[in-house]
UBX domain-containing protein 10 (Malassezia cuniculi), 484 residues
Amino acid sequence: MSIAALRTELRRAGIPDTEQPDDGTLQVMLDVEGNVQRAAESILANQAAENRISHDSQRYAEAERQPLNTHDSSARAVAPDSTLYTSPWVSIFWRALSLPFSLLHAAITFVLRLLRVTSSSDNIELTRFSQDPHAAAARFIESLERDTNGTTQLPQDRDETMHAMVQLPPFVPRSYSDALQLAKREHRILAVVLTSRVHSDDEYFRKNVLTDRQLVGALSSRDFVVWGGCVQDREAHRVATLLEASTYPFIAFISLQPRRSRTSTVITSKAAVLSRIEGSPQSYTSAGMLVSHINDVLLPRTLPYLERLRSERQRRDSERALMAEQDRAFEAAARRDAERVLQARTEAQRAESLAREREKAAAAAVAEAQRATQWRRWAKKNLVPPEPFADAAVIRLSIHVPDGRNLQRRFKPTDTLESVYIFVETAAEVEEETEKPEYTPTFKFKLVQTYPRKQLGHDLMHEQLGNICGLDGAARLLAEGHLQ
């Protein structure tokens, strides 16, 4: 829904741009009526009534371009109406019925002006601050709290310094459109309270009616959104024009009501003005009258439908919450399945990698063993020195190996200890003519003299046997460790 579409509809109905309401009023009409067609019909009906009631026509036509003139209009007070003001024809009938009172009010006002009885503060120019809806709403609340030494905060929201303050209705510090949208969204009743600073009953209404415990208790329930304003501010004056307020204080109640579509049998919810109450705070707008109207008329006719809407909303919210929970559970299950698949894939890849590593290590071990065997065969032929004759100067060694064999051999005193290690390492191999492999031997055993026990370690590899103590003539050795 757009303001431009509503202006186009009004032009088609014969209302030029110069006579159309401002954008703010049009937006409020769209919010209240729900679509462009009904908003245009409501505006047309209002203008038709204004053409028949000259006093009201002048007041509404000058609402946005003249300084605000809000007078004490206690001569005309409208009693609470228990019917729903949802039809323009009802509004036209009521305003025609009130025409004599309107003319009387205009005459009295004219005489008072001639006698200069009216207050000089009647004409109040709109300031930038008063034109800001949110600032105007906040200023209205601050003014009300200051005048009554009260607070609009509910008891559970107060701090320790506010316990002694008078409790006021919980006015919301937001624009009228926002308050209306809040009431529609949460299926609550919007209570609109309009006052005028230049009205003689304004102070009494603020200090005696808006502080009444029963009224405050009723408006503080979860069934209400309370919005208020002073008609010297543009937003409140626009709302006063929209709701057809003629004197102050003025209270209106707005809520969603069922409406059947004109083109189908579908029943939809539409915001409607349930009742308007205006007049003296000592009679029509007294706390007792307002509480009675709320408890006896408003709530019995409104709450059943609102409760049904709330139940439907709660059901939808529960269904959405259930669907969201199911979606979360599905996503969690899918995530766990994906994690299991990923874990299984990772474990399979790890197992495959380990298998490849084992195969690679086994192949390397086989190749290493083959090179070691080839080296031992080559070393037995090329590195083990020839055994000297028995009649020569020799060293006789008897070497006991781990598999139980005793290896006996003669060595020259000039042979090195390494030659003995190679002899022991290659004793089990067959001598073979082969090429020297790319292999560096590592002896995994050590030779030890038996008595006295002495280890002939790898650090003595290049030592001649004749220079090693205990190997003169003959000796017994042990090969401790692992032989190939």
